[in-house]
Design brief:
This protein is α/β, with parallel strands linked by helices. The protein is built from 16 helices and 13 strands.
């Protein structure tokens, strides 16, 4: 692990490393590095954006380093303000516990969990008393906190910053002390938090950790980072058909980015894809299908990816109704209520917007009237090109 080639292989794909020279020196010690990544269980599911850094964590595990995945069950109660222009709502203990149950399984799609230690930061943060907290806070100034872009922007805009939000980067920094991290991974939006960990480790007499950040995966809209709250995401737990259909919606120019960050292709392979798109030597639709199948296969296997591709080609390209679909037994009702009952919309208002936007069909006929109703006769309700349900009258 001491030669330059190994260093380059381990650091391939990181956007910022603080610093490469320190990383080489730490490797030269001849022992496995203590590598840390923290994720907060703030939603029920992980998405492809999380997998970018998990793949890098797996790289260190495969190389024989001591890797720890910290699930922030304590920090999730504070709420990570990174990249936010408003205070993030605090989660209840019940919501955190429910989310934690899915994280191990979904992270295991990329991580070899037999090589990774999983710890929860309530293990040490929950034991801190008020005097401990005062001691920690005394090592950081308000001016340091306002160096964070999101805090600075909110302060200048007159947007409220609650005191508890300052605790988040402090608590995350203490995680590095607790596990004596040599290296911490994160997204580019976490760089301030990671650097604060270096500061605190020095204060506690530890060697400061190296900080390595990965690019943020742009969401399906091609503009903002992938986020469940925005709705531009591909969930790890979503069905193969849903994953494939969503991936087919990305702009063509994003394919090299997804090849690199979501399919984990080499830089050379991603560059070759970009070149093929630029010079017109390849069919973009065919390339996108191959890319989508490659990503779906990682989470649902080759057979799941094959079925998803066939489903897309039949329902979207040939506009066929799938032979198999879920059934919804219901009394005659307005379509807006049925759309919600089928899980195709979160609210009646959202369902009505789908109707007025001509995105809803009943037996293949577009229904654009928000008050339209179903009479109870068997029918196929579809929303968009990928969501189908067979309506049957309840007995």
């Amino acid at each position: 692990m001491k030669d330059a080639q190994s260093v380059e292989a381990l650091l391939d794909g990181f956007e910022h490393v603080e610093s490469v020279a320190e990383f080489r020196s730490r490797l030269a010690l001849g022992r496995p590095l203590r590598v840390k990544l923290g994720i907060d269980p703030t939603s029920p599911d992980l998405h492809l954006g999380f997998m970018v850094v998990l793949e890098k964590l797996q790289r260190f595990a495969a190389a024989g380093h001591a890797v720890t995945l910290i699930i922030g069950d304590f920090t999730a109660r504070i709420g990570d303000p990174s990249g936010k222009n408003a205070m993030r709502p605090q989660l209840s203990s019940e919501a955190i516990e429910a989310n934690m149950r899915t994280y191990r399984e979904q992270a295991g799609k990329v991580l070899d969990l037999e090589r990774v230690a999983i710890r929860y930061n309530s293990e040490w943060l929950g034991k801190l008393g008020l005097s401990d907290l005062i001691g920690l806070l005394s090592k950081t100034t308000v001016a340091q906190m306002l160096e964070r872009n999101d805090f600075d922007q909110r302060y200048r805009a007159g947007t409220a910053i609650s005191l508890h939000e300052f605790l988040y980067p402090v608590a995350q920094a203490y995680d590095s002390i607790a596990v004596e991290a040599d290296l911490e991974l994160g997204g580019t939006d976490q760089l301030f938090n990671l650097l604060l960990g270096r500061h605190y480790q020095r204060e506690f007499g530890q060697a400061p950790q190296i900080c390595a950040t990965v690019p943020l995966l742009v969401g399906l809209d091609g503009v903002k980072k992938m986020s469940k709250s925005i709705g531009n995401y591909v969930g790890i737990a979503e069905s193969p058909e849903t994953q494939f259909g969503k991936l087919m919606s990305i702009p063509d120019e994003l394919m090299p980015v997804y090849a690199r960050l979501a399919a984990f292709r080499s830089r050379e392979a991603a560059d070759a894809l970009a070149a093929a798109l630029r010079d017109g030597t390849a069919n973009p639709m065919q390339l996108k299908k191959e890319l989508a199948a490659e990503i779906v296969s990682r989470y649902h296997g080759p057979e799941g990816a094959r079925r998803a591709r066939e489903h897309f080609e039949a329902t979207v390209q040939r506009r066929e109704v799938p032979a198999e679909m879920p059934e919804l037994r219901h009394a005659p009702a307005r379509l807006s209520a049925l759309i919600v009952a089928a899980g195709f919309a979160a609210s009646k208002r959202e369902a009505e917007r789908l109707l007025t936007g001509s995105g809803v069909k009943l037996d293949g006929i577009v229904i654009a009237e928000p008050n339209a109703a179903w009479d109870g006769e068997p029918a196929v309700l579809s929303v968009g090109s990928r969501k189908f349900v067979r309506l049957l009258k309840s007995s």
